[in-house]
């Protein structure tokens, strides 16, 4: 059998490494990687990981516990469950990455976390459609506009909307639905950048707590709640994709969101209207709520050119 030749020549030995020498040795081992970005990201990761272990004087039991926690996190993931994103969200990493890559800027609408419940291939509905599809709840009229940072309307923008039901659950969390979609829909803005639809009023809800992330929240004595919100993903030609939510003003969890996603500019009143007549002329059998938000899209920032793409 032919032996694989591995080049080892120019590198220092990995034998007899002290705690102080092992970090540099690992980094040196990666120096032949092709991508400079990959090398610098990995060197930083190894440096911080080792510094963390030293700082807390990590015991073998704690290290084994952490490995088991990450193993369970992976095992909890499925086609409809992403426990690693939830871990990132509850540790504030998702908000950190979102805010670094989409810093708040003037008129442009702030971004916030995507969360694990967005679904590709949500159907397109005509303006004014009801995405509650028969689910009982307080009727909610959702309207808005999409424009550029100077308020010029964007026609034919794609507005993807999704939210939880009045019990705080998303369709993907209900196996009985067999994959059917509820409380989500895509709309295209009209010639003046407007959209509207009907749904039902969402409520505050807990992030999933039956997996390892739930155990972590419990051990940290943290509640798992998110304030009531409606998610939006808006896409328009020539603009950055906007991923955001609007939050209900006055929600009791507005200042303690379990995933750190609330921004002042995204908090709006969910206004109660006694009338049984909707703003689009629809006759209801009860009073209703209304929300409205004017979204402002951002032009893509010109990114500094990197020499090599990070290897995957
Ligand atoms: C959500 O709002 O859908 C969500 C975001 C982060 C973690 C869990 C849920
Ligand atoms: Fe949500």
Provide key terms for this protein.
binds benzoic acid, 6 helices, five-stranded mixed beta sheet, disordered C terminus, binds fe (iii) ion, four-stranded mixed beta sheet, alpha+beta, 11 strands, 23% helix, 312 residues
Give a brief outline of the structure.
The protein is α+β, with helices and mostly antiparallel strands and 312 residues long.
Q: In words, what does this structure look like?
A:
The chain is α+β, with helices and mostly antiparallel strands. The chain is built from six helices and eleven strands. It has helices at residues 19-29, 36-55, 60-76, 83-90, 93-101, 212-219, and strands at 139-147, 158-162, 184-188, 194-200, 205-206, 225-226, 229-235, 242-248, 267-268, 271-273, 288-296. The strands form three sheets. A five-stranded mixed beta sheet has the order 3-2-7-8-9, with no helix packed on it. The longest helix has 20 residues, at 36-55.
Note the gap between the termini: 30 Å
Shape: elongated
Average pLDDT, rounded to a whole number, is: 92
Bound molecules: benzoic acid, fe (iii) ion
Helical segment count: 6
Widest sheet: strand order? 3-2-7-8-9
Find the structural class using helix and strand composition.
Answer: alpha+beta
Biggest sheet descriptor = 5 strands, mixed
Question: Radius of gyration, rounded?
Answer: 24 Å
Number of strands: 11
SSE pattern: HHHHHEEEEEHEEEEEE
> Which percent range describes the beta-strand content?
15-25%
Share in helix: 10-25%
Q: pLDDT below 50 for ≥5 consecutive residues: which ranges?
A: 307-312
């Amino acid at each position: 059998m032919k032996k694989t030749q591995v080049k080892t020549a120019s590198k220092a030995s990995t034998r007899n490494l002290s705690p102080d020498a092992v970090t540099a040795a690992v980094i040196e081992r990666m120096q032949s990687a092709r991508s400079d970005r990959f090398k610098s990201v990995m060197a930083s990761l190894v440096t911080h990981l080792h510094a963390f272990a030293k700082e807390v004087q990590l015991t073998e039991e704690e290290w084994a516990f952490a490995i088991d926690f990450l193993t369970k996190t992976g095992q909890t993931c499925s086609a409809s469950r992403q426990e690693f994103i939830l871990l990132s969200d509850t540790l504030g990493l998702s908000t950190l990455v979102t805010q670094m890559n989409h810093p708040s800027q003037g008129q442009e609408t702030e971004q916030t976390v995507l969360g694990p419940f967005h679904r590709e291939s949500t159907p397109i509905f005509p303006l004014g459609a009801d995405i509650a599809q028969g689910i009982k709840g307080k009727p909610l009229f959702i309207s808005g506009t999409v424009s550029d940072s100077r308020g010029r309307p964007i026609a034919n923008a794609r507005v993807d909307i999704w939210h939880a039901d009045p019990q705080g659950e998303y369709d993907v969390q209900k196996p009985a639905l067999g994959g059917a979609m509820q409380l989500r829909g895509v709309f295209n803005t009209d010639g003046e950048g407007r959209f509207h639809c009907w749904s039902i009023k969402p409520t505050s809800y807990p992030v999933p707590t039956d997996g390892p992330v739930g155990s972590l929240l419990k051990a940290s004595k943290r509640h798992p709640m998110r304030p009531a919100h409606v998610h939006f993903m808006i896409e328009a030609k020539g603009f950055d994709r906007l991923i955001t939510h609007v939050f209900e003003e006055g929600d009791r969890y507005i200042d303690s969101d379990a995933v750190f996603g609330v921004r002042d500019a995204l908090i709006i009143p969910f206004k109660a209207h006694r009338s049984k007549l909707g703003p689009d002329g629809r006759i209801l059998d009860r009073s209703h709520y209304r929300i409205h938000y004017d979204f402002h899209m951002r032009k893509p920032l010109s990114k500094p050119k990197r020499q090599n793409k990070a290897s995957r």
